């Protein structure tokens, strides 16, 4: 991965930028609202993919709240927050993967129409958030983690819409389960990326904040 997206950021980055904080508040509101909508539709429609996407919205809402809480703090604190977000994202991915595997033996056929409509609405919401956060995609681990979350959401929404088409066309739950599993793996991958960058920044900040030797 290129240095421009992974190298430690300066303590005097854009974390205090009012535009950054405003963008996070908007992202938090959108994700919280979409979590409620998708988890309701996912349970009612029997869709594991929608439920997976809803959990992603929930995780992102918590992540945006954490980012707002640490914005303006020293880089070591922002890096610790990013590490926590990476672990959370990976853990949600593991949970969704387990739920998809459970659905192979115990799930029914979801409602394709519900999946399609909710997936399109979620895609529009996440595309707007991802576009809004695009300018901060190469910031420190905390900022990059926000971008990765919004990017993953938009990709996941496209997959949900495709899964809805697959369920409608085949009359089986397999497209829904496959997409749920793929979204879980995407979440795990994103979490691992965030954890790796945060750990790298932790090493750098220890050196920067340690008293000079000799």
Written overview of the protein:
The protein has one domain: Cation efflux protein transmembrane domain (Alpha-lytic protease prodomain-like). The chain contains seven helices and no strands. The chain has helices spanning 3-6, 18-45, 48-70, 75-106, 112-133, 141-170, 174-209. Helix 6 (141-170) packs antiparallel against helix 7.
Relevant terms:
Alpha-lytic protease prodomain-like, mainly alpha, 214 residues, single chain, 82% helix, disordered N terminus
Can you say what the CATH homologous superfamily is?
Cation efflux protein transmembrane domain
CATH class reads Mainly Alpha
Tally of helical segments: 7
Number of strands: 0
Look at the structure and give the mean pLDDT: 77
When the domains are counted, the total is 1
| Range of helix content | over 70%
What is the architecture at the second tier of CATH?
Up-down Bundle
CA-based shape: elongated
Strand content: under 5%
The quaternary structure here is single chain
N-to-C order of helices and strands: HHHHHHH
The largest sheet, given as strand count, sense and whether it forms a barrel, is: none
Low-confidence stretches: 1-14
Which radius of gyration do the C-alpha atoms yield?
18 Å
Instruction: Fill in the CATH topology.
Output: Alpha-lytic protease prodomain-like
For the terminal residues, how far apart are their CA atoms? 34 Å
Structural class: mainly alpha
């Amino acid at each position: 991965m290129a240095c421009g997206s992974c190298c430690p950021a300066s303590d005097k980055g854009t974390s205090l930028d009012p535009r950054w904080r405003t963008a996070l508040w908007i992202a938090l509101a959108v994700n919280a609202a979409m979590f409620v909508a998708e988890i309701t539709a996912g349970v009612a429609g029997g869709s594991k993919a929608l439920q997976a996407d809803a959990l992603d919205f929930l995780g992102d809402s918590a992540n945006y709240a954490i980012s707002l809480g640490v914005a303006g703090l020293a880089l070591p604190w922002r890096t610790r927050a990013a590490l926590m977000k990476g672990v959370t994202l990976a853990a949600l991915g593991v949970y969704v993967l387990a739920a998809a595997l459970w659905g192979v033996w115990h799930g029914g056929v979801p409602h394709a129409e519900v999946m399609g409509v909710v997936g399109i609405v979620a895609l529009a919401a996440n595309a707007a958030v991802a576009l809004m956060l695009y300018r901060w995609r190469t910031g420190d681990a905390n900022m990059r983690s926000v971008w990765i979350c919004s990017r993953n959401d938009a990709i996941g929404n496209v997959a949900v819409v495709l899964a809805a088409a697959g369920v409608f066309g085949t009359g089986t739950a397999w497209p829904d389960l496959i997409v749920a599993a793929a979204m879980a793996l995407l979440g795990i991958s994103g979490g691992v990326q965030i954890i790796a960058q945060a750990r790298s920044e932790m090493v750098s900040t220890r050196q920067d904040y340690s008293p000079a030797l000799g």
